[in-house]
């Protein structure tokens, strides 16, 4: 017997998929169809956010001036560094305040895998919580989890095998793969291996329930373990000054 929470998760994604397919079919506009599916997934993510987290879309930035590609869905918080919002949920998000980034695909294909990987690699180029080590080299902290979520697929075989086949390099830029009706997998960064489940013969949309379970656990843990950070590093107004800034004591002595 499943719990009420699990039933709620499954019902949310089932309704979202049905509505997205109904609204997006026969529009003849790929961009609009994509936006409809992004909104549908957002409606399935927002109910499971903990108090500090919100959803948006846009680009992720770091304090070194680097910028990611356009991201479909960003899960962020304001406890560490506030985003620069162009509208209520569109903006530029400091990497330190981002927990998850999503690429949402109507139908997963080899081409869509490569497109998602390109965007995820733009995230991996960012530096979070920058700090110089003893040798003066800039080091960074943890980066956001990268989620590739698809409503359906154009193959009947293993999704994780297909993903690996079309991903270059020894390190996966994607850390979560969830394909409705096919399966759910997550990437273990420590040993560079995938773990997860094929779900074709399981209850419909169970893969999304598995993902949301881990998603909620991660956000709940982050609520109490957010790292200290000085967001003023993004402003760096002093770099535009032509003369040094005097301290209060120096100013007082100069006026005597």
Topology (elements, then pairings):
Elements: H1 4-24, H2 30-45, E1 53-61, E2 71-77, E3 84-85, E4 90-94, E5 98-108, H3 110-124, E6 131-132, E7 138-139, E8 145-153, H4 159-165, E9 176-179, E10 183-188, E11 193-198, H5 206-222, H6 248-254
Parallel strand pairs: 1-4, 5-8, 8-9
Antiparallel strand pairs: 1-2, 2-5, 3-4, 6-7, 9-10, 10-11
Describe this entry's structure for a reader.
It is a single chain. The protein has helices at residues 4-24, 30-45, 110-124, 159-165, 206-222, 248-254, and strands at residues 53-61, 71-77, 84-85, 90-94, 98-108, 131-132, 138-139, 145-153, 176-179, 183-188, 193-198. With 256 residues, it is an alpha/beta fold. The chain has a domain at 52-228. The strands form two sheets. Strands 3-4-1-2-5-8-9-10-11 form a nine-stranded mixed beta sheet, with helices on both faces. Strand 9 and strand 10 (183-188) form a beta hairpin. It starts with a helix and ends with a helix. 32% of the residues are buried. The model is unreliable at 247-256 (pLDDT under 50).
**Total helical elements:** 6
Query: What class, by secondary structure content?
Result: alpha/beta
Quaternary state of this entry equals single chain
What percentage of the residues does DSSP assign to strands (E)? 15-25%
Low-confidence stretches: 247-256
Helix/strand order: HHEEEEEHEEEHEEEHH
Report the C-alpha radius of gyration, rounded: 21 Å
Give the averaged pLDDT, no decimals. 86
């Amino acid at each position: 017997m499943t719990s009420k929470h699990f039933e709620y998760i499954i019902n949310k994604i089932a309704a979202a998929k049905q509505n997205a397919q109904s609204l997006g079919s026969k529009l003849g506009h790929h961009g609009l169809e994509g936006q409809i599916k992004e909104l549908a997934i957002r409606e399935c993510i927002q109910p499971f956010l903990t108090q500090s987290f919100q959803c948006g879309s846009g680009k992720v930035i770091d304090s070194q001036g680097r910028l990611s590609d356009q991201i479909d869905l960003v899960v962020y918080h304001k406890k560490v560094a506030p985003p620069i919002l162009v509208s209520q949920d569109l903006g530029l998000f400091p990497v330190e305040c981002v927990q998850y980034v999503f690429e949402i695909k109507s139908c997963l294909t080899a081409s869509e895998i490569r497109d998602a990987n390109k965007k995820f690699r733009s995230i991996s180029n960012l530096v979070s919580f920058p700090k110089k080590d003893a040798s003066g080299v800039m080091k960074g902290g943890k980066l956001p989890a990268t989620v590739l979520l698809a409503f359906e697929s154009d193959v009947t075989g293993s999704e994780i095998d297909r993903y690996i086949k079309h991903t270059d390099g020894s390190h996966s830029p994607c850390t979560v793969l969830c394909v409705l009706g096919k399966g759910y997998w997550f990437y273990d960064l420590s040993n560079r291996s995938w773990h997860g489940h094929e779900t074709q013969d399981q209850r419909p949309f169970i893969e999304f329930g598995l993902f949301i379970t881990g998603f909620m656990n991660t956000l709940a843990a982050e609520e109490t373990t957010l790292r200290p950070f000085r967001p003023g590093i993004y402003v760096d107004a002093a770099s535009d000054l032509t003369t040094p800034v005097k301290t209060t004591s120096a100013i007082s002595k100069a006026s005597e």
